[in-house]
Amino acid sequence: MKIILDFLFPIRCLGCGKNKTHCCEKCFQKIPRFPKASTLTSLIAGAPFVENSLLAKLIHYFKYDGIRDIGPRLTDLLPPLQFLPKSVLIPVPLHWRRKNIRGFNQSAVLAHEISKKTGAQVCDFLERHQYTQPQIELPRQKRLTNLHGAFSIKNKFQQLDPAITYFLVDDVSTTGTTIAECKKILFRHGAKDIRGLVIARTEASTV
Ligand SMILES: [Zn+2]
Description:
The protein is an alpha/beta fold. Helices cover about 35% and strands about 20% of the residues. It folds into 2 domains: about 1-30, no CATH class; about 30-200, Rossmann fold. It has helices spanning about 1-10, 25-30, 55-65, 70-75, 95-100, 105-120, 140-145, 175-190; strands spanning about 45-50, 85-90, 120, 125-130, 150-155, 165-175, 195-200. The protein binds zinc ion (ZN). Zinc ion binds next to helix 2.
């Protein structure tokens, strides 16, 4: 089956068209990255997000075309992460309906890959109970209000450990609203140290 699919839809580098890879090594190395970030900042991001760039295309293919294999590669854009011993990764949740359509939660794929590299644990504390429009499709003003009340903690009696550093994992941060909304919920349940960890962020992200 895979052979037939590869024949009908050959995999090509989104940067240069070279065969058999979604992004060849040469193009991947050319993706601009942020200078080395400290794990103590409130939002760790690997690369600047620029519309229509190779990175934007890779993220789009990963997220909207369901090409899961791109996820692990994207985490290579992150700076070397040295977490404190008590660190937990929390993927930003997808609404179950969107997850069913896509087949996976892209943030969870990223979180598990980061976990493999760093040893930090992944905990699925949050859920999304509102089916909202994707942030990327909305104008800035709407992005700020689109997510009000969209998230909650899975077990509402759950208390989080204030001694743990929680990293909210997502693919892109644009306005910072998604991370901010998730942070609110975690604070409400006892977490004290919460940061964001994203593959890419735009200039306007205000986390
Ligand atoms: Zn290439």
